[in-house]
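Entry 12.
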Amino acid sequence: MNENLFTRMQELRDLAGVIGLASWDQETYLPKKAEGGRAAQLGTLQALHHERLVDERLGAWLAEAKPSTPDEVAMVRILAKERDRAVKVPSRLVKALAEAQSHALSAWREARDKKDFKVFRPHVQKLLELRREMADAWGHDGERYDALLENYEPGMRVKRLLPVLGGLRSKLVPLVQAIDARPPPKRIFEGKTFDTEAQWKFTLHLLESMGFDLEAGRQDRSTHPFTGGTGLYDVRLTTRVFENLPLSSVFSTIHEGGHGLYEQGFSPEHERTTLAQTPSMGLHESQSRLWENVIGRSESFWTYFYPRYRDAFREQLKDVSLPDFLREVNRVERSFIRVEADEVTYNLHIVLRTELEVELIRGNLQAADLEGAWNQKTKELLQLEVPSVNQGVLQDIHWAYGEFGYFPTYALGNLYAASLWKAINRDISGLDESIRQGELSPVKNWLREKVHREGFRTDAESLITRVTGAGLTDEDFVSYLKMKYGALYGI
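Predicted 3D structure (tokens):
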């Protein structure tokens, strides 16, 4: 491969890493008075990245590229696609979006503090306008949302996505209703407080047990848990810790740990190239959802970890048996907060957001009407009346980043995770017993070989098809839910 082309590819990855690090700092340690400066800095960095990506010399190097290996062929293909999309977007728009994102983040935090959507509303409208403009610049066949989906789930289109989500909705609603008819688990945490530092120590224990390398990453705290960093040797995770919601830190950490293992699992020889990334956010979400829900809420997992968890909170859990604890961590109930939602109702939260996003991007729904539309859909899908904007339209950080098109990947990740779990159990004998002994490395090693090391060599659905024997399907996910929750709730 042309040396200039390879060097430019590495420069672009380096810039993306620095942008990621600045964004991570923005959500963790940035002083409040530095927010304006950080907005300008990110705008400059995004514009610089864009300029180097659309550079005519890069176009010439790509045209003249003579890749000699399959990996080089993939690197060139991915970079060419990135550049093709980038050249269609003016630097002015890239910089405007980066600055609008930074201001929106600040407004989102202020709006949450004041519990007032009006503080955030004009920023949503601005980001919508910029994203529509960007979608038009990229090009589409009449559905702007398709162009935005391409950012996160290449190849996915509204005409395929909405039927997938609609099918899930039709299968999940009866399951939720059946569970609703059964006696709910007793609330074992009500009225208790859990020391936040003890929670923090336990989350670090979980990360180490999962195989996350804390010498190549770290965990911090943020309002909304996320994973970032600069590369496979610098992966930044965040979690959130509440003294009266002890499971929040546990499952936020396991979730982000799943993302973190993926980021640390790319092939070292792909570092600083276009291959050291996921082919889709749906595939990335499959890693976090597999660890958080399929493994992290299983009886096998807690057979080993619950005695250690109870040791950390002896007074609070002294009368709580493992079966009662398992029923609590697998409680199914309609709730307001997506990231705290159970496996059965979670995808209904995604249906809500996706349907709103599609209408927002189409222009059929305006930011001024978003709060009301959110509340109406919450009642329609979850039969709940939203008591506060922080439990409603302001709960997620994604729209502050202008990340329209991201939410559907969570549902796709759930589907991929169930199919991967079926394949893992097919390939690894005695896996359940290993997990009961606290030995999680067989899972990590299987994922590293089959998924992580592949990076972006191929698209997500092709990789899933090769590994599991099937592409995108809800059959494995729905079967998994019915078997697990049928046993837990006696339905």
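Annotation: The chain has two domains: 3-139, 158-489. The longest helix spans residues 3-28.
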